[in-house]
Every structure is written in structure tokens, then in C-alpha cells.
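sry for the spam today, last one i promise. C-alpha cells for design, 155 residues
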């Protein structure tokens, strides 16, 4: 449960209060439903983001239909972008440094979808595992998708 608290940036006490059926936080099982306070149920959000590391693209789906495809940069060989199912847990406008104009945190601590101060890196495998977008693209995406949106990262 402490890993979940870290990944979703929520205090463990808050997670336990929202999930009174969990009596032993050290004993949760795969597939167990856990309420994350402050986030909507991902299935209630009509948007899904599909990231293709190989194609270096981020596809935004609305009710299963492609709405837009964006070019991205992904992690380099030693710091690869993780594969799996995540959700956007929070966002930070103007995070500074190499993160461009917007940071969308994923439910894996240390990873996110963000802008860049180096637009020539888009299309490359150069990041420390994050998904980089052109600044105007990440701003557009952040205006469309709410926190809780599912993000599926594929090879």
C-alpha cells in the first residue's frame, strides 16, 4: 500500500481512510479495487492515451475513437520509458527546466508526460524515461484530459 501511496502522491493515511475494507495494508492482492481520493474512477473518463514507444507517438482516444496523434520523445536505452497501464494523477504548469510548459504526473513516481525546452528531441529516444511532447501539444492535451485519465504505454 505504501508503494501505491508513493505512486499516486497521496499520504498512506488518506488511502487507508478511503479504503476501510483494507485492514492490513501489507496484504493487498492483484486486481483488488482501491479508491484513490481526489481522482475519478478511470472507467468514468471517456479519454484514453495510448503511447507507442516504437512509433514515438501518443494517441488520444475519445470513446475508443482516435481524436489526435502527437509526436513524442521517449526514454533512452539506460532510462527507458516504462511499459504498462497508468493514470494521470496530477499536473503542474510551468515546472521549469527541461519539462517545458506542463507536467502531467503518471501513477509511477518520477514519470510523466511533459513539454520540453529542446523541441529538436521530439521523435528521439533521449529522455530519462518520461514522455516528451512539443509544448503546444502538451498544453492542448492537458486542456482536454482530466486527472484520472488512463495512459497505456506500449513497446
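last one done:
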Amino acid at each position: 500500500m505504501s508503494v501505491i501511496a508513493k505512486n499516486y502522491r497521496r499520504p498512506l493515511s488518506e488511502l487507508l481512510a478511503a479504503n476501510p475494507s483494507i485492514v492490513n495494508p501489507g496484504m493487498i492482492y492483484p486486481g483488488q479495487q482501491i479508491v484513490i481520493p481526489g481522482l475519478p474512477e478511470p472507467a468514468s473518463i471517456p479519454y484514453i492515451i495510448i503511447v507507442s514507444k516504437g512509433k514515438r507517438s501518443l494517441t488520444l482516444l475519445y470513446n475508443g475513437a482516435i481524436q489526435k496523434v502527437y509526436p513524442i520523445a521517449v526514454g533512452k536505452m539506460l532510462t527507458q520509458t516504462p511499459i504498462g497501464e497508468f493514470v494521470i494523477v496530477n499536473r503542474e504548469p510551468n515546472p521549469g527546466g527541461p519539462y517545458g510548459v506542463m507536467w502531467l504526473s503518471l501513477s509511477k513516481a518520477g514519470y510523466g508526460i511533459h513539454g520540453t525546452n529542446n523541441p529538436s528531441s521530439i521523435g528521439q529516444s533521449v529522455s530519462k524515461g518520461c514522455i516528451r511532447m512539443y509544448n503546444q501539444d502538451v498544453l492542448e492535451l492537458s486542456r482536454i484530459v482530466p486527472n484520472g485519465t488512463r495512459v497505456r504505454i506500449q513497446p
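Strands lie at 47-52, 57-62, 65-71, 74-75, 84-93, 102-106, 112-114, 125-127, 131-132, 150-154. ok im logging off now
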